[in-house]
Amino acid sequence: KAGVTQTPRYLIKTRGQQVTLSCSPISGHRSVSWYQQTPGQGLQFLFEYFSETQRNKGNFPGRFSGRQFSNSRSEMNVSTLELGDSALYLCASSLGLAGTLAKNIQYFGAGTRLSVL
Amino acid sequence: SQQGEEDPQALSIQEGENATMNCSYKTSINNLQWYRQNSGRGLVHLILIRSNEREKHSGRLRVTLDTSKKSSSLLITASRAADTASYFCATDNRGAGSYQLTFGKGTKLSVIP
User: Fold this and answer.
1) How far apart are CA B47 and CA A74, in angstroms?
2) 3-state SS class at A18
3) A90 and chain B: CB distance < 8 Å anywhere?
4) How much is the pLDDT for B8?
5) Whole-angstrom Cα distance, residue B3 to residue A97?
6) Which of A60, B27, B71, B107 could be bridged to A64 by S-S, CB 3.0 to 4.6 A?
7) Is pLDDT of A76 > 60?
8) pLDDT tens digits, residue range A23-59?
9) Distance between CA atoms of B50 and B53, rounded to whole angstroms?
């Protein structure tokens, strides 16, 4: 079974630009979560999507948005980039099914490293 | 906000030694998980312990959970150079319908051959 695929792996943007990151979950997984990882703040939860609906959201400004498609693939968008948005963005998928602890195990992609200049 | 706090922040040991990492958290949890991250890559799930369990084993890994102290420990026995990575604890303290994991800042483990 293929793992979680994130594209692109590396991205360089300038302040004020916008960026879209893509995540393809493991086949059969309906939940996709996004995290931002920086040396200072560590891993911070951005949002989680399940069946095309945002089910949970972290404490990030509205410049950070996402969506999920009917095939469970997800995209994350950051508008008006700031220097502080430079980070490793990680996507994780899980079953997301009720009634089993398996839903809580998240499978991570390799991440997209975003550099904002 | 960070739920878990790992300690120590960095740990350096010789190959063959045991490595112990600790995690403390603040609120009640449903379960606690440990993940490993090799430099700049994605996280890999290692082990999950439920809130009503006290100890769990998986291969060379042993995890304990003390909900009264809101703490957990991860023990890696007979460490290998390939165990060099950062280790994170993550708590699942979800309400209904929420699948958010809250991660600590991690322990960076270096195993010297």
Assistant:
1) 26
2) coil
3) yes
4) 87
5) 24
6) A60
7) yes
8) 999 999 999 999 999 988 899 999 999 999 998 899 9
9) 5
